[in-house]
Design goal:
438 residues, alpha+beta, Porin, Immunoglobulin-like, 3 domains, 8-stranded antiparallel barrel, rod-shaped, disordered N terminus, OmpA/MotB domain protein, transmembrane beta strand, Bact_OuterMem_StrucFunc, transmembrane
């Protein structure tokens, strides 16, 4: 019987300790510093004289445990029960046990299993204990109990002891073996005091990397041109979640595409009057199957025959160059401060002079090009260039120039007139440039 008891104790301790390493990670529960349990206790027992046939005792228990670590506590328990007419002699029995020992608990779960091994004393009274040729009505003995059970946690303060099953061994005199083996079953309420939240941190959910998304739009400031002119097209691409490298491809119904990247032009020389389209495609360099497309319509009209001096002949190259020089002498670039699209006083003076010149030459169409220096992202500077071109256009309109004579386009930092990393060079690139647009 001693070997069976030792095996049972070691099995309970070993299994419970192994389970205690595997917290379920319930963050709603508490491992208390102290727990107190009170409840009903039933015992299937034997007693003097002569051992079984067994009988039943009904009573209660009081237990308290102090946690050393989450899974290990020191437990103290007292039980008490009474049985009447336990043998042919008609004697009764009051049985009290007081014991203490280690308890192993699988904490951090709604259902908390535990195992324990307790050692102490037992005292019987109001009964018959034979001692040789005489007897006594009370006696004491060592007590050894081992077992386990289940607690159900209601909240951080209360739990229900749903089951507590223990083997109890005593050594009262009974005129025979002086050894008794009992089965105790209990249930009750557990009250928890103090303690700390106990849970295994939930694993951090790893966000699945989703394929990048591309938005791609394109536009032209010259949607209608005369045959022979150039259509300028700008593409605006954004990738999510990151700004990734892109490859651009362009096609047109007719004409010759000039350039590559986000900004291209289409030469319309030799094209018949009519409606056409430029189509663009932006694809990830790292994943060419991830792409977005855009489309820009444009119209080509017939070019009227230029007349000079009533002779029916076109302007000569020398005359065109001279008119271009005169234009730039009177319509000069507007310069801007760093990261700003506000018209400065010097730019305001230049635009006022340009407005007077353009008013005197109502046949001149103007293309306003917005630029930025090379600091900052390409996308940001493309937007900043558009703001500068728009600000210059608004300033000319305030001088009385009709808006249909003014077209705008942004090159951002794509076309730099100066490439040195100096403030003087950067200032030359922060501008709205004006050119005659045929």
């Amino acid at each position: 019987m001693r070997s069976t008891t030792l095996t049972l104790v070691l099995a309970i301790l070993g299994c419970s300790a192994a389970l205690a390493q595997q917290s379920s990670g319930n963050p709603a529960l508490i491992v208390p510093k102290l727990d107190v349990s009170l409840g009903y206790n039933f015992m299937r027992a034997n007693a003097p004289p002569g051992g079984c046939p067994c009988f039943s005792l009904n009573g209660g228990y009081l237990a308290a445990g102090v946690h050393i670590v989450d899974w290990l506590s020191v437990e103290g328990e007292a039980t008490g029960g009474r049985a009447n007419d336990i043998s042919l002699l008609g004697q009764n029995l009051n049985l009290i046990t007081v014991a203490a020992g280690p308890r192993v608990t699988l904490s951090g779960h709604r259902i908390v299993p535990f195992g324990e091994a307790l050692f102490g004393i037992a005292h019987g009274s109001d009964s018959y204990f034979p001692t040789g040729t005489s007897f006594t009505t009370s006696a004491s003995s060592f007590a050894l109990s081992a077992g386990g059970g289940l607690d159900y946690s209601i909240n951080h303060r209360y739990a229900i002891r749903a089951l507590d099953v223990q083997y109890l061994r005593t050594a009262f005199p009974n005129g025979n073996s002086n050894t008794q083996n009992h089965l105790m079953i209990g249930a009750g309420l557990v009250v928890k005091f103090g303690g700390h939240m106990h849970w295994s941190p939930a694993p951090v959910a790893r966000e699945e990397k989703r394929p990048s998304e591309i938005s791609f739009t394109c536009s032209s400031v010259t949607p209608t041109v005369k045959e022979g002119d150039i259509i300028e097209v700008s593409g605006h691409a954004f990738t999510s979640p990151d700004q990734l490298a892109l490859d651009y491809a362009w096609t047109s119904d007719s004409g010759v595409i000039i350039g590559s990247g986000r900004m291209i032009a289409v030469k319309t020389a030799g094209m018949a009057p009519g409606d056409y389209h430029v189509k663009g495609k932006a694809a990830l360099l790292s994943s060419p199957t991830t792409f977005a497309e855009c489309e820009v319509p444009f119209h080509v009209s017939a070019r009227p025959v230029a007349v000079a001096n009533g002779a029916g002949s076109s302007l000569t190259p020398a005359e065109i160059a001279k008119s271009d020089v005169i234009f730039h002498e009177n319509v000069q670039d507007a310069l801007f401060d760093y990261d700003s699209a506000e018209i400065r006083p010097d730019a305001k003076v230049a635009i006022e002079h340009a407005g007077k010149f353009l008013t005197e030459h109502p046949d001149i169409q103007v293309l306003i090009e917005g630029y930025a220096d090379d600091r900052g992202s390409a996308e940001y500077n493309l937007g900043l260039g558009a703001q500068r071109a728009s600000a210059a256009r608004t300033a000319l309109m305030e001088q009385g120039i009709p808006p249909e004579r003014l077209k705008i386009i942004s090159y951002g930092k794509e076309a730099q007139v100066c490439v040195q990393q100096t403030e003087q060079c950067w200032q030359q690139n922060r501008r709205a440039a004006f050119s005659m647009h045929h």
